[in-house]
From TrEMBL:
Name under which the protein is recorded: Chaperone protein HtpG
Organism: Tateyamaria armeniaca
SUPFAM superfamilies (UniProt xref): ATPase domain of HSP90 chaperone/DNA topoisomerase II/histidine kinase, HSP90 C-terminal domain, Ribosomal protein S5 domain 2-like
CDD domains from the UniProt entry: HATPase_Hsp90-like
Gene3D superfamilies from the UniProt entry: 3.30.230.80, 3.40.50.11260, Heat shock protein 90, C-terminal domain, Histidine kinase-like ATPase, C-terminal domain
Function summary: Molecular chaperone. Has ATPase activity.
Superkingdom classification of source: Bacteria
Record flagged with keyword Chaperone: yes
InterPro entries, A to Z: HATPase_C_sf, HATPase_dom, Heat_shock_protein_90_CS, HSP90_C, Hsp90_fam, Hsp90_N, Ribosomal_Su5_D2-typ_SF
Pfam families assigned to the protein according to its UniProt record, in alphabetical order: HATPase_c_3 (PF13589), HSP90 (PF00183)
Region (C): 540-621
């Protein structure tokens, strides 16, 4: 409540100001979508009041819900009215001057930076109410909250500020009036408006009226049989229900009858929503009970690892009196959650098998999210793993674990992987060399979440999962196609003297120095010792401040590399212990291995000095 009786002026939150500049300035060819956004908001407002009236009978509306449009072709205005929940002074301040989505600032910076695809990015973000400013020079919002007596008029020209003043409104609800821009007068044309509503809002559950005419079917789409619904109708509904701009990648419309009746109409978007990796990991599926909207914020309906889904779930078997707080303990809802998760996973499996190329697009967008389920949903872990796909050193496209296993070499005991930040860099890692030479495939895991599920899943199909940057690479048992190996062995130098010299020089900086079986082209690499933390996990934890100091690593030397064999010869001579060049070489080898890992030398100035001195000697000799 507030005592304010005068008109007050407020500034938009910085991000809203920036967003409005982009919205108003961008020549959006498809700007009629503003009407879908405003109608969706009106429909949400009716849904919200219907829910509120469940627990507070005094809010029960006397009239049935409807959304009405009003065109004043002389004044060039278009109004969208609803008799829904309405807004009070605090609501207006909170919602129509700010953006309550986390990650907004970062996203707006990204939009500003990408001049070419501003429209596409805005679509991903969903500008909602603010899309009104694509067509309106001024927007008035006259609103009264259900259960309250005061009404308010919010006004803005979208240029940095808005005003709120006390006003009159006979009933609860909201009227948004657009004073159309000169170049947007087409939206004061009846035929145009009828057409837009037909196109975008046919399946809004409430009647949309223009005068006495109802323009839409006003029937919840998900209640109709799937075979009667066209692809276009699904797409429109998806855009309406989720304020999205893309076409869904996949639609899952499923009716379950029996012990626990429920209908779900779920959409997998074709682009990544902007907030996919925000820490809230919010669900975006709306829960209805017998067509009455309950909530879209519960975490008890969809698991977080399916948060990319949009759409609705409607059940006749939940109690209509179920409050949002009670949802958590409702065993029925938990069953629905499991049933839907299984259904989604089985649909994904079908897609993955029948259309692997299309599935690769899905995987690129949402794979990293789905893999969170491997950690969080122990009960469905196998089903989730079944639809997981991985980049591999041996396959061009993506591979499943089962496909990998089917291609394993005779004598290969483990499923090998390398984890890091970037799949392209991983593919070039020196650790892979020996595996490539033997024709042994290595999975390239480049999502952060990989390190976490690898803690839970240590084998598949009886084969252990093994990092190639940790522990010994024992490839001796693996049969090779060629006889090349024997020849290689003959060239390998005895590294014992060199290893001893390097150990003395590097001391605590390394855990051990060993000849390598995994290198063919590079002279050195670093690995984690068996039982130590894998290199990539250590890097991740350090970056997130969860680990101050890493473990010393094992330095592996390639006994077949010319540099190593030369150094080995040199270290076998009597003068080796006083050989400064060898000492520099020991440090340089370690730094070189660090650089190959994408790290920087431990002491860059010492590194530069040693490199300079070694080069000077090389060129002077
Ligand atoms: N007709 C309306 N009646 C009541 N509240 C409304 C109405 N229109 C907008 N609002 C309020 O303003 C908020 C902001 O609306 P906006 O369309 O910008 O975003 P949204 O609908 O919450 O999010 P998104 O568009 O991403 O789904 C809404 O969440 C709602 O609280």
């Amino acid at each position: 409540m507030t005592d304010t009786l005068e008109k007050e002026t407020f500034s938009f939150q910085t991000e809203v100001g920036q967003l409005l500049e982009i919205v108003a300035g961008s020549l959006y060819s498809n700007r009629e979508v503003f009407l879908r956004e405003l109608v969706s908001n009106a429909s949400d407002a009716c849904d919200k009041l219907r829910y509120a009236a469940l627990t507070d009978a005094s809010l029960t509306p006397s009239q049935s819900f409807e959304i009405s449009l009003d065109i004043n072709s002389k004044a060039k205005t278009l109004s969208i009215s609803d008799n829904g929940i309405g807004m009070n002074h605090a609501d207006l301040l909170e919602t129509l001057g700010t953006i309550a989505k986390s990650g907004t600032s970062a996203f707006i910076e990204a939009i500003k930076a990408d001049e070419k695809d501003q429209v596409g990015l805005i679509g991903q973000f969903g500008v909602g109410f603010y899309s009104a400013f694509m067509v309106a020079a001024q927007v008035d919002v006259l609103t009264r909250k259900a259960g309250e007596t005061e009404a308010w008029l919010w006004q803005s020209d979208g240029k940095g500020a808005f005003t709120i003043a006390p006003a009159e409104r006979d009933t609860n609800g909201t009227t948004v009036t657009l004073h159309l821009k000169k170049d947007a007068k087409e939206f004061a044309d009846q035929a145009r408006i009828r057409h837009i509503i037909k196109t975008y809002s046919e399946h809004v559950s409430f009647p949309i009226k223009l005068g006495d005419d109802t323009l839409n079917a006003a029937e919840a789409l998900w209640t109709r049989p799937a075979k009667e619904i066209t692809k276009t109708q699904y797409t429109e509904f998806y855009r309406h229900a989720s304020h999205a701009y893309d076409a869904p990648w996949h639609v899952i419309h499923n009716k379950v009858e029996g012990t626990l009746n429920h209908t779900s109409l779920l959409f997998v978007p074709s682009v990544q929503p902007f907030d996919l990796f925000e820490p809230e990991r919010k669900s975006h599926v709306k829960l209805y009970v017998n067509r009455v909207y309950i909530t879209d914020t519960t975490t008890d309906l969809m698991p977080a690892y399916l948060r990319f889904l949009r759409g609705v779930v409607d059940s006749q078997d939940l109690s209509l009196n179920v409050s949002r707080e009670m949802l958590q303990t409702d065993p029925q809802l938990a069953k629905i959650k499991t049933s839907i998760s299984k259904k989604v996973l089985s649909e994904l499996k079908k897609k993955a098998t029948k259309a692997p190329d299309e599935y690769a697009t899905f995987w690129g967008n949402f794979g990293a999210v789905l893999k969170e389920g491997l950690v969080e949903d122990a009960a469905l872990r196998d089903r989730i793993l079944d639809v997981c796909r991985f980049a591999s050193s041996g396959a061009d496209g993506l591979t499943s674990l089962s496909e990998y296993v089917s291609r394993m070499k005779t004598g290969q005991e483990a499923i090998f992987y390398i984890a890091g930040e970037d799949a392209a860099k991983l593919a070039k890692s020196p650790h892979l060399e020996g595996f490539k030479a033997k024709g042994v495939e290595v999975l390239l895991l480049s999502d952060h979440v990989d390190e976490f599920w690898l803690q839970h899943i240590t084998e598949h199909d009886g084969k252990p999962l093994k990092s190639i940057t940790r522990g010994a690479a024992d490839l001796d048992q693996v049969e090779t196609d060629e006889q090349k190996e024997k020849e290689d062995k003959a060239d390998e130098a005895d590294l014992s003297a060199l290893i001893a010299a390097i150990k003395v020089e590097l001391g605590e900086e390394v855990k051990d120095v060993r000849p390598s079986k995994r290198l063919t082209d590079s002279p050195v690499c670093l690995i984690a010792d068996d039982g130590d933390m894998d290199v990539n996990l250590e890097r991740l934890l350090k970056r997130h401040g969860q680990l101050a100091q890493g473990m010393p690593r094992v330095l592996e030397l390639n006994p077949g590399h010319a540099l190593i064999t030369t150094l080995a010869e040199r270290s076998a001579s009597d003068a080796a212990s006083a050989d400064d060049l060898l000492k520099d070489a020991a440090h340089l080898l370690l730094d070189q291995a660090r650089i190959l890992e994408g790290e920087i030398p431990a002491d860059p100035s010492e590194f530069a000095r040693r490199l300079g001195s070694v080069m000077a000697r090389a060129f002077s000799g």
